[in-house]
Design a protein that fits this description.
The protein is mainly β and 118 residues long. It is built from two helices and eight strands. The protein has helices at 7-14, 78-81, and strands at 2-5, 21-27, 46-52, 62-66, 71-73, 86-91, 94-99, 102-112. A hairpin with a 4-residue loop joins strand 4 and strand 5. The protein is globular. The N and C termini lie far apart (28 Å).
C-alpha cells in the first residue's frame, strides 16, 4: 500500500514534524496511547500523530509507504484505508484523507507528541 502526501499537506506536516520524527496515522477508536476518546459517531476519524522516531509504538504494527517515508498505523484500521489511491491532501486548510473509493476523513488533525513519552 502507498499513500501520496500532496505538497500542500507535506508543508503543513513539516511545520510540526522535525527531521527525527515518526508519523502515525491513528484511527480515533479509543485504543492506544494517542486515542484519548474514540469516535462513537457514524463517521471514521483519523489523526496524524507526530512522535519521536525512537518512540516504541507497538499498537502501530503496520506501515504505509509514502513520499514522506513510512507512516505507521494500527493493522486492523487497514479496513478503512486499504483501497488504492490513498491520498492525504489539504482542503479548506484542513488535512483530508481519501482514496479511490472516496472521502475517508475530512478533518485529520495533526497531533504533535514529540518529546512526550506515553
Amino acid at each position: 500500500m502507498k499513500m501520496v502526501i500532496t505538497d500542500e499537506a507535506k508543508a503543513k506536516i513539516e511545520q510540526v514534524a522535525g527531521k527525527n520524527a515518526k508519523l502515525l496515522l491513528s484511527l480515533d477508536d479509543g485504543v492506544g496511547p494517542f486515542s484519548d476518546v474514540g469516535s462513537c459517531a457514524v463517521d471514521t476519524s483519523f489523526d496524524l500523530v507526530v512522535v519521536d522516531a525512537d518512540l516504541a509504538t507497538p499498537d502501530f504494527d503496520k506501515t504505509i509507504d509514502s513520499n514522506m517515508g513510512p507512516v505507521y498505523y494500527k493493522g486492523y484500521s487497514g479496513q478503512y484505508i486499504d483501497d488504492p489511491g490513498l491520498t492525504l491532501t489539504v482542503q479548506f486548510n484542513q488535512l483530508v484523507l481519501k482514496n479511490d473509493s472516496g472521502l475517508i476523513d475530512s478533518g485529520v488533525a495533526i497531533l504533535d507528541k514529540q518529546g512526550v513519552q506515553k
